[in-house]
Each structure stands twice: as C-alpha cells, then as structure tokens.
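@channel sequence for tomorrow's demo:
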Amino acid sequence: MQPQVFYRVVADDFTAVDEIIRRRLTSRVPLVAKIGDYIVSAGGKRLRPLLVLLAGNALGQRGERLNLLAATIEFLHTSTLLHDDVVDKSSLRRGRSTANALWGNAPSVLVGDFLYARSFEMMVELGSLPVMQVISQATRVIAEGEVLQLSKVRDASTTEEIYMEVIRGKTAMLFEASTHSAALLSGASAAQAEALRTYGDALGIAFQLVDDLLDYRGDAATLGKNVGDDLAEGKPTLPLIYAMREGTPEQAALVRKAIQQGGIEDLEGILAAVEASGALDYTAQLARDYAARAIACLEALPPSEYREALVALTEFAVARTH
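structure tokens (generated this afternoon):
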C-alpha cells in the first residue's frame, strides 16, 4: 500500500475534517484567526486526525461525530505545537517560520490557549463522557511529558527509561488518545478499545523514535527543521543516551559535553560518534519493534481496507525520511 492510500480510503471524511477546522478557527479577534490559520495551513501529515478516521471506520463508525472528534484532536495537537515552539525557541517548523518567529512568543502562547479551549468546546459537543475522560487525561499527561523533558535539558545522566517516559507522554499519548477515543465513540468492545489504545501508544513511540533518529540522519530540506536542533537545545534523546552508554570513552565524553553545554559547535563529531557507536541502528531497530507491536494489535479488528490502511500507516511511520 502506497503512503497516500491510507489518506485515500477516508478522503471525503478528511475533507470534512478540514472544513470543520477552518470553520472553528473563526474568532472576533483577527490576530487569533490569522495565527491559527497560519499554523493549521502549514500542512504536515495530520496523522492524529487520520488515526481517528481510520480507527473509527475500521469499527464501522463514520459521519459527523467522528469528523468532529478528528478535528478536536487536531486542534489539541496544534495548540501544543504553538506552545512547544515557544518553549524550544524554534524558528522553523515544516519548512516554514514558526508563529513565534513571526508574531512573537506572547501571541503564540495565547493563540495556543485559544485552540486548546476550542478543542474542549468541540469535545463537549460530542457528549461522550468516556471520550472526554480519555482526551482530558491525555492533555494532562502530555503537559507532564513536556515538563519532564524540560527538566532533563542538558542533563547527561538521563536514562533510556526516563527518555521513554518523556516520549510516551509528549508524543505517544496523543496518538493513543486518537485511536482510543475513536474506539469509544464507535462503541467498540472492551477488547477492541484496549487493542486500539495499545496500538496508538506503540505507534506514537515508534514515530517519536524515528523523529529523534532523523535529527541525526536527516537534512533540513526534507525534515522542515534544522538537523541537530535537539542537540542544540541540549535534549538527551535516545541516540545520544545510547552513544554515552555503549560508545567508547571518547565518544561518550564528546556527547556528554555537547548535552551539558548545548549548541552544535561539534555537530560533525557528534554525528560521527552516534553513527559509529551503533546508536542510530539501535534507535531504528527499537522503532521497528514498536511498529511490529502496533501492527499485532490490529488483529483485534475485523478485516477491512481501513485496517490495512492502519498497517500501511505504521509501516510508513518507521520508513519515512521526514
């Protein structure tokens, strides 16, 4: 299955979700709508609303309520992007200037708050307490994951276990909430709901592992961000943690110093160290392992083109180069 096929099977619903997003971006304050439209129109893969649509359709659910849930998840995700770019002092996302680079930190944070609040208004419209419980809990866990990551910046003693806790919170949790809430909205059995919850968690972990891998193996043109950004911020991601743990004393010392000081003055040396230590291969293999776990969860769903699309999406998530 080609990458675009997993969009094609829900193309009409995807268009409907886009229309909901555009409609709900309206505000009586022009700057809110302007910044909101800018960040939403930046494109991206829209994987989280796609997961909602595919999971729901795989269980026989489609229509306005599922589309509203997908739009709700995308608004929540977009609000976190606005906040993250401020926290990370990022100037580039998806190949374009970030909102904070164009309008400043204060408007970006406040429009992020607007989108966050809008997502909860939309969630209330769905009228499903189980869905509200999943998404509100996910929102808290995401915030905790971001704070945990922030507390570990320039901390070279960060372990793989703590790193996994960070990515499970800041990234995998919203993937999990997307598939889990779609299952609950679709009236899935307890076994199917748990399978889709676990699928989202494993897929989200695999996705973030590849993201962190690409920070050392990609290039700015295809990534839409700068190679070495995580290192420049002093973030101890898995390739660095592994290189410190399994590399030579010289490699470990080089990476440790880079994390503690931040910056990319010796980027070439760091790239060589993480490659030579086997850190990139280790990270890639772990991503494939989590992808395999995710795909295994899909056996709980009845055979359909939507289930096949979820399999293809998972395979794409670990094979991508951006």
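heads up for whoever presents: Residues 220-224 have pLDDT under 50 and may be disordered.
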